[in-house]
């Protein structure tokens, strides 16, 4: 074995994940020296969910749930699948990811290049949408392959625990955190980061950012353009009791934020990045200048070149030239009205 090949091991791949940088986001999102800090999780090989994928797989191996060489099977819209591909290579497991036609071609191609098998469902579940259809396919695959392991990102508590190191990095990089802004999909990083930071900063405000058309916080489930945040199911890892408020953001608002970030800060990303920027910049404009606001940017822009950064796609979906309003709409309870644009509710309610 060569020196180079012997150096490529599970520990060396694991060390590629974490210790991501932060970036100060200011004008034009906030003026007068105001702004917020963005935690750039796109600096990980695959994005934010590399942390969870590696942690879950390693815990499953240690606990005997995942036998050496056994198959891993999971539902994903993309980012968690990329993280699982890293974990599967690091630990020597075949990987099957179940997705749907919304997966971007670049992600499908990367997963195949990383050795994963991509199983695509073609018909959404009549009430649970694409996510429910994917989960049902996962169950069938597990039944057909005894000994296969599913990480269960939506309800596995190890998904939450995986993000404690991210919180520790923020403590070292930022110090005090007054407001934490997180997109919400599986609920893993919002719960994991909040639980650590609240021990030090009990008065910290936590804002969950959801997609219009998502059922996580009690809105009706609708077809959604945005991927990576929101859900048509109710993930058990979403810790509703930790949120002080929830904001729903629409696709055109996220597109404006992503493209403005690219033009003014070079740092940008996907739907979740745009959505949390809309909300974090509002806090930066409205809170005292000394408030320390942190937003988690889950990924970078590459996988969105055919959606957010494609003019024809955005024109076709009416997403261009429609910045968010200066202030969100306000509702007192998610059941009060179905939201269609940036809207705030100062009480996070479980569906």
From TrEMBL:
Cofactor section: pyridoxal 5'-phosphate
Entry annotated with the keyword Protein biosynthesis: no
Limits of the Tryptophan synthase beta chain-like PALP domain: 14-299
The entry's keywords: Pyridoxal phosphate
Domain of life assignment: Bacteria
Keyword Transferase: no
GO biological process, any: alpha-amino acid metabolic process
InterPro entries reported for this sequence: Cys_Synth/Cystath_Beta-Synth, TrpB-like_PALP, TrpB-like_PALP_sf
Name this protein carries in UniProt: PLP-dependent cysteine synthase family protein
Organism, scientific name: Sphaerisporangium album
């Amino acid at each position: 074995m060569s020196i180079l090949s012997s150096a490529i091991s599970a520990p060396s791949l694991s060390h590629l994940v974490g210790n991501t940088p932060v970036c100060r986001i200011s004008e034009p999102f906030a003026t007068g020296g105001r702004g917020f800090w963005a935690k750039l999780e796109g600096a990980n090989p695959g994005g934010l969910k590399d942390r969870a994928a590696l942690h879950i797989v390693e815990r499953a191996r240690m606990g005997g749930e995942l036998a050496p060489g056994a198959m891993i099977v999971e539902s994903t819209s993309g980012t968690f699948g990329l993280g699982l591909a890293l974990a599967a290579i690091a630990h020597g497991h075949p990987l099957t990811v179940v997705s749907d036609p919304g997966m971007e071609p670049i992600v499908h191609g990367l997963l195949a290049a990383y050795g994963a098998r991509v199983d695509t469902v073609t018909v959404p579940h009549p009430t649970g949408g694409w996510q429910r259809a994917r989960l049902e396919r996962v169950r069938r695959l597990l039944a057909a392959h005894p000994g296969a392991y599913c990480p269960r990102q939506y309800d596995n508590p190890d998904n939450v625990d995986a993000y404690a190191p991210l919180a520790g990095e923020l403590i070292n990089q930022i110090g005090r955190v007054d407001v934490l802004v997180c997109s919400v999909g599986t609920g893993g990083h919002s719960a994991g980061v909040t639980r650590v930071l609240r021990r030090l900063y009990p008065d910290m405000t936590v804002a969950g950012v959801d997609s219009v058309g998502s059922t996580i916080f009690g809105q009706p489930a609708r077809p959604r353009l945005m991927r990576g945040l929101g859900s048509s199911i109710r993930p058990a890892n979403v810790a509703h009791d930790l949120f002080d408020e929830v904001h729903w953001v629409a696709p055109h608002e996220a597109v404006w934020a992503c493209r403005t970030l690219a033009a003014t800060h070079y740092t940008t990303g996907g739907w979740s990045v745009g959505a949390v920027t809309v909300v974090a910049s509002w806090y930066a404009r409205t809170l005292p200048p000394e408030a320390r606001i942190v937003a988690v940017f889950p990924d970078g822009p590459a996988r969105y070149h055919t959606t957010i950064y494609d003019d024809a796609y955005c024109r076709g979906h009416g997403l261009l030239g429609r910045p968010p309003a200066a202030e969100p709409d306000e509702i007192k309870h998610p059941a009060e009205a179905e939201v269609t644009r940036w809207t705030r509710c100062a009480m996070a309610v479980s569906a």
